[in-house]
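ingest -> fold -> write
write: protein_1
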Amino acid sequence: MGGAFSDEKEWVMAERKQRDIDQAMDPRLRPRVMTLQDARGELSNAAYLGTEVLEQLEGAGLIGTNAHHLRQEIAAFAVRLLELHWCGPSDPNKPS
């Protein structure tokens, strides 16, 4: 117990508050149910946003392709992997 807390109860409450903050900030700790269509959209957007460094690499002449198109390809590949491993309900818009 650190010197900033006057007693054990105060320390326990601070630990709980920090755990709640950590859980609220870490999306991996918040399971969600969503449709395949929703998951596709969220993953595609996240993959595209997560590859922003490619724009900087293109600007520095370190990659020999259009970064925007490469980012789109990476996002599409992530969606294909999601579809391959999907265990949730089937997509009603996709033929069986």
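write: protein_2
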Amino acid sequence: MQSRGLLANLFVLVLDMILVSSTFGVVQHVQAHACAIKSSSTTEAIVNGGFESGDLTGWTVGFGNGSAAVATTNPYSGGYCACITGLNVLYQGFQGIPTSSIQSITYCARTEPESSTLFLELLYSDGWDYIEEPVTSSWTFFDVTSNLKIDKVVLRIQLPGWVRDGTPMNTYYDNVSILYFPPPTYNVTIDAHCNTEGTVVNVGIAKDGSSTGLSTPHTFYGLDGSHTFTVPSADVLGHPFSQWNTGQTSTTISISDAGTYTAYYNALAPFGNATRVPEDYKSVQAAIDAAAPGSTIIIAPGIYNESLVINKTLTIVGKLGSEPIFVGGGSGIAITLLSGASGSIVTGITITSWDQGILINNASGCKIYNNIMSLISNNGIVLQGANAVNNQIYSNIFQQDAVAVDLTSSAYNSTVSQNIISLSTTGLKIETSGNIICANIFSDNQVGINITNSDNNKIFHNTFADNTVQVSVSMSTANVWDDGYPSGGNCWSDHAGPDLYSGPSQDQLGSDGIVDTSYTIATGSVDRYPLAHGQRDIGITSVSTSKTVVGKGYTLRIESKILNYGTYDESFPVVAYANTSSAVTQNITLTKETYTIIALTWNTSSFAYGNYTMSVYSQPVQGETNTEDNMYVYGWVAIAIPGDIKGDGVVDIYDAILLSGTYNAKPGNSNWNPNADINSDSIVDIYDAIILAGNYGKTA
């Protein structure tokens, strides 16, 4: 038990220390959801055991002096049996069946003209065994299961013939059977996730030491035994490997059970190598100029009047909550991504009242998602330049813009998906080829899509709702407006139509969710399979927690941004999970084509000490088919002894140093550390020091 004097001295120490506390990174990983697929029924090992194929398919005839053939003379069952005349055998081999998994070995036999003693032959991994059975001229059923050796592996079964005094005898066999429980198989998904991007990344996969030629995410089916999987030491953007979701820190993981195994590339976690605005730099552009390629810029909520120029690969992240808002004066460009910025990410910010929102100028492989752009007098997002290829624009909200998204003639091969575009002059302007436009909502715009001099674009699963002109097409006849049957095309508010028939030609009676008649957009542009109903789709785009280490008995705030991409108002529960246990649930109602940020408060009192993978799940609404984004896995949070700021299982001097370095800090201060705010009152003060001192020396 700690003495009163020691606690008092520690309390003074915590208050008097004047030290600069080091910040620390956050390792994130996802929870593997394992569900082994184990067989509950037996499998027949014998091929053609009743010989009903009329031949010896599946069997091999030995090399004795006798013969073997299919017979029709008085079979035990069916129309055929096998007959071995003289000294020969029929046999079948196996890869190896453990005797512990064999349910039964049975067969039927008879001999003529005389009775005999047969020796059924089984080859084990360590040699032959012979099971002696008396056989007469009448069919007899034999079950030799009890004669099996324990803890052995059966490799082969042989059916012998015989002779008497040099005279070949006939031995008949029928209904030969080995029933066994096959070894359990399992499916494994190998995935990869970059913490900075907050999304999946594609990396190569090696299995059992050899390249598979596959990349993440990929599911391997029907595995048994143990296997190793290896991922690269860095992802495609150079972010270093951190660990697997199961905790292993080697790029090679050994797996013997089902589940999703996620490799985390722990790039520049918040408060580690990332740069914060305004804590580290007062302006975002200053942070960009000082950052090394591959860095992360985390922007706190607030109003920013900066015009940003980026010419290196960076991740620009707005903190969840009240997003940072970039406000222009009606002119200029909010963010410009030059060619050196290829592979950059911009997420979690609001851009309003600019001439252009985001200009991607000759940059490729960029991801622009989870942003809001409104009141843009020219283009919300514009792609231009011959190198502006393979960019992804998704999960954004555009409102009251002149042109929400502009794919100019020099850019190509990009994806525009799951955006909500409304109340704009033109929702999407396409002047280029090879793009995928899917699962967007274009509503109440003057023109939904304006496509000019563009071919080889694929446009499907979008909703066009009450636009003055749904689509304007000019000199563009080689685009695809559906995803074939039964996937379907787009939903058009001016083409409700009946849905009484189904099939590729819509000539089979029965509804299939596709309007029975095609939708002509323009000459040469036809949606062959227009959808009968608007989409219903809920998605979680970001999650954050107020801390990464929380004292047991205290609360943790979990914020989640949820979008309703659909055309219906929806009500549904949202659940935060700690590992696989429900931590807190909240029912919400979300208006169509809008988003909300909800705060879930988790009381940790009933949970044990340890690390928990935090995730948020929105229950799919009726009719929702795209459920991949209904689950968002954030990373881990540790429940610790109050005062264990580091989360290493002990309250010690290092925690006191951390607390002293953030004493009197509040959110927004450069030395703010939320984990040091033990009682979560938004200031590190005397009360936090008292909690730490009271638990000093305790271990979890």
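write: annotation protein_2
The chain has five domains: 4-23+536-694, 43-180, 186-265, 292-480, 493-535.
The chain is about 5% helix and 45% strand.
pipeline exit 0
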